[in-house]
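Backbone geometry:

***
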Amino acid sequence: MMYVWAFIVGGIICVIGQLLMDAAKLTPAHTMTVLVVSGAVLDGIGLYEPLVDFAGAGATVPITSFGNSLVHGAMAEAEQNGIIGVITGIFEVTSAGISAAVIFSFAAALLFKPKG
């Protein structure tokens, strides 16, 4: 049953993104920003972690999870290191994912001919 809930919750997040682009006429960049900020706000008010516990990958795979990671890391580091932990926590939690994206994008650009 967990796979079904993951599919449903992930699908709902994707439908929200699609509706933002189709009905609200937002660009993909604006839609991504709205979804990341939504994940951050939901984590800030304590609603995203219960969603992750309920839906698993349905809540951790979409872009909303990136906002969740930013706030979650900032809050955890702020508890340990004070206000400076807000900044260092954001970089500490997200650095692996961002580094992987840059490295894999660079490798893809070397292996394949990008179109200009």
The two ends are 45 Å apart (CA to CA). Residues 2-111 form one domain.
